[in-house]
Amino acid sequence: MLYIGRLGSESARWVNAFLAIILVGFTCLPSLAQELVPLDERVRKGKLENGLTYYIKYNPKPENKLELRLAVNAGSILESDSQQGLAHFVEHMAFNGSENFEKNELVSYLQSIGVSFGRDLNAYTSFDETVYILPIPTDDEEKMRNGFLVLKDWAGGLLLTEEDIDEERSIIEEEWRTGQGPDQRMRDEWLPYLLHGSKYAERLPIGQMEVVRNADYEELRSFYRDWYRPDNMAVVAVGDVPVDEVEELIKEFFQDLENPEEAPERETFDVPEHEESFVKIVTDEEAPGIQLQLFYKHPPASTETVEDYRNRIVRTVYGGILTQRLDEIRQKPDAPFMFAGSRYGSMVRALDFFTTSGVVGPGKVMEGLEAFLVENERALRHGFTENELDRVKRSLANSTERSFKEMDKMESRQMVSRYVSHFLNGGFAEGEKNRYELYLQILPEITLDEVNKMGRSMVRDDNRLIVVTAPEKEKESLPTEEEVLALFDKVDAMEIAPYEEKELLEELLTELPSSGKVIEKTENEAVEVTSIVLSNGVKVHFKPTDFKNDEILFTGSSKGGTSLYPDEDHYSASYSSVMVNVMGVGEFSPSDLRKVLAGKNVSVTPNIGTYSETIGGSTSPRDLEETLQLMHLYFTTPRRDEELFEVYLSNNKSQLESAQANPDFQFNRKFNEILSQGNFRGMSIYDPEDLQKIDLNRGLEIYSERFANAANFEFLFTGNIDLEVTLPLIELYLGSLPGNPDAVDNYRDLGIRPPQASSESVKVGKDEKSQVILYFHGPTPYDIEKSQQFSFLGEVLTIKLIENIREKMGGVYSIGARGGLSRVPEESFSFSISFPCDPENVDKLIAAVWDEINAIKEAGPEEKDLEKVRESKRISLEENLRRNSFWHGQLNAALTSGMPLDTVLGAMDRVQKVSGEQIQEIANEYLTKENLLEVKKYPQSFEGLADE
């Protein structure tokens, strides 16, 4: 491994190292190109005598947690015709009884040690693999050993009893039902063209429901025996346990697993190439809009050598530059598409593709496709520019450097999937250090000529596919396949000019503002927060942490929002911050900002909501000054660009018009109308004609008014903050904002409330699926301990709903409950239960939900369920206390609601104090028919309901 430079700790050294290398450059030795990319040296990879592979990595964040994965090199592609859906079926059965855990005992046990079903404990099946996910606490040896026992049972100890198999059939069918809709119907028509000529085209992981409903028990067991074998699996373990200890556990639990004597060979499957170009035009009456996809299909790229690694970087650069060009085009008046982007990717192990995809308005399919082809051809003929290449290089360098700097603070769950991929797909798993060094070597060497040549290999004349999906009502305006194919020849014959780029200012602020001063400074030692008041009345709080090396989160909040404006200003006020985000600030459009800030970690977003306005984002210590400059511009210099805003309105009008026939859109519209009792100020815009009620001039006036008085705002910064460096910058960029402490606003209660004691039925869509929402709400005094009790009730009830309505009744695939208290616009509670299901089962399942609610009302929660929730919350809280996002959220909530900053310190005590009696009282007092809004969605064809 070639090593360049001395890696220091100061941020300036990182910048200088990259800049020096990028400016100077050097020639990579030819031998290096064929060198294998190493596996992360912090990972121990091994193989047991029975062929089971393992990856082990010690990582102390979070403490007392080990992320375990069982990777099975088998997915739906290995199913026989009579097994379609059984790879996924086996995955379900892994939670339904094994040698060491009876049916439902596994989930119950894991919940008892703080592992939540769905959120933590999970699995997925794809075309090529099945992966099981198990994060396990390690503060107790028995818990850790049981985690490995679970993995062992998954790998070779599933019982697969006839009774359990039969009970699971309906749950899988409910999962299938949940996925039905226009996107699924259209995908099922075009996917066989992308996977043309391959077995993949006939092996969607969800499978055939006829097989799921009727598959022979032995067929399922046969799939499990054939493919769940040690030489076809890997155990991956990343977490807070010494590597030697984990290795011994893997040997102890897995070395006795045996491969079947006549195990079938694990075949690989190709996606054959084709000389012709395919066009697939698909319509559906419920499609939400027109989408275009242009695929250039390729065999899978090699992922072994440094040369392979370099090629991957070059492909990323190429897609990044082309996406930037497409983004500029979409912002022009009468643009041929609303959104578009390019990337190199894959869907199955045997196929890579380079794709340009996007969304177009009615009547613009040919125009959009032509634009995709023209931009691809423009890049091929004339190449990219040095400025474009430099921007993408800087962005990649910044991302790589940040990962390297956070290497010792990265959490295990962020790492574990890379080793799973290494086993299953041969993907790179080089780790942050090797990645950083490889980028230091490779990135400066990449030339414009090399990037342009890569385009000529990715954009080919054969093995192409164009997919158009559109609403049925657009069918008459859609082109024929022949017309689409003719575009290739048309574009080939065009004269296409090179790309031209306007010059941009290099600095966000050409003149620095007059600095304010800190006039008051206090310390809250309990939570280690420093608070200041600036001379313009702005309050700023700082929570320095060492949780991340390169992260600072910030939020500025102010009360008022759109509530302060009359009805006639509602639409303009609601879209006022959208206007600024669309048009930019100062001399910079959003596209200009992305270019100027390329390679920097600067994210700032203003927002004006119903009852408040905020400005927030994230940055790095080294980019804090430019972040504050951008924030200053959002306060003082919103940019007016009628052309950009008209493009935005035009695109949104097209999208809303196209979405009218979509059942999800229709249901959301009706649900929001019900919640707000028809008050338009409580709803989003659903009618495209309402967009005309937005007045640009008035919107900008309102935005300027809401951000005119910085003294309205209270700021919080959390992360790696050096106050000696930060305070002068805060004085300069926030202290210079106009502010009047005597003119601080508050919000106005608009009186929008959901109905109570109400039941509504909504009929939309043609798929045989329903959605049920039980929404309890009403006024109640805010109490932070009671809010925790509501949260406990939601999680305890979810456990019972999963146990009885999913597992025993087989009536749903997913179901959950949650609740809490809020203060704005009034002190109130809300508690919701929701689930999708078969329309025929709606009333039966609602009754079953009430059975579970009434059981808690009458006898309180079972103690074992209460302890499951308590343990899950304890573990989650302990981990969150080492995360910037948690501290930032908790402290900001305290600031905006007027609570003491040290409220967060009582969180663990509040978790421990919740009792069964309190939960029972909450259920009895608040989960009543008088507080209930019941909303039921049915398909249009469902009988027995009047049309809504």
Provide a descriptive summary of the structure in words.
Helix 11 (306-330) packs across helix 16 (448-458). The protein is 42% helix and 18% strand. The strands form 4 sheets. A 7-stranded mixed sheet has the order 12-13-14-18-15-17-16, sandwiched between helices. Strands 1-2-6-3-5-4 form a 6-stranded mixed sheet, with helices on both faces. A 5-stranded mixed sheet has the order 7-11-8-10-9, with helices on both faces. The longest helix has 25 residues, at 306-330. The chain is α+β, with helices and mostly antiparallel strands and 948 residues long. It has 4 domains: 44-254, Cytochrome Bc1 Complex, Chain A, domain 1 (2-Layer Sandwich), CATH 3.30.830; 278-492, Metalloenzyme, LuxS/M16 peptidase-like (Cytochrome Bc1 Complex, Chain A, domain 1, 2-Layer Sandwich); 518-733, Cytochrome Bc1 Complex, Chain A, domain 1 (2-Layer Sandwich); 758-938, Metalloenzyme, LuxS/M16 peptidase-like (Cytochrome Bc1 Complex, Chain A, domain 1), CATH 3.30.830.10.
Record the SSE blueprint.
Blueprint lengths: L10 H14 L5 H4 L9 E5 L5 E6 L6 E8 L13 H8 L11 H8 L9 E4 L4 E8 L3 H16 L5 H17 L3 H13 L14 H6 L2 H11 L5 E7 L3 H12 L23 E7 L5 E9 L7 H25 L8 E10 L2 E10 L4 H18 L3 H20 L10 H10 L5 H12 L5 H11 L5 E8 L9 H12 L25 E7 L4 E6 L4 E6 L7 E8 L10 H5 L1 H8 L6 H7 L5 E7 L3 E8 L4 H13 L5 H18 L3 H13 L20 H11 L7 E6 L3 H11 L24 E6 L6 E10 L4 H25 L7 E7 L5 E10 L4 H18 L3 H18 L3 H14 L9 H7 L2 H11 L5 E7 L10
Parallel strand pairs: 2-6, 7-11, 14-18, 19-23
Antiparallel strand pairs: 1-2, 3-5, 3-6, 4-5, 8-10, 8-11, 9-10, 12-13, 13-14, 15-17, 15-18, 16-17, 20-22, 20-23, 21-22
Helix pairs in contact: 3-9, 5-10, 11-16, 12-17, 13-15, 19-24, 21-25, 26-27, 26-28, 26-31, 27-31, 28-30
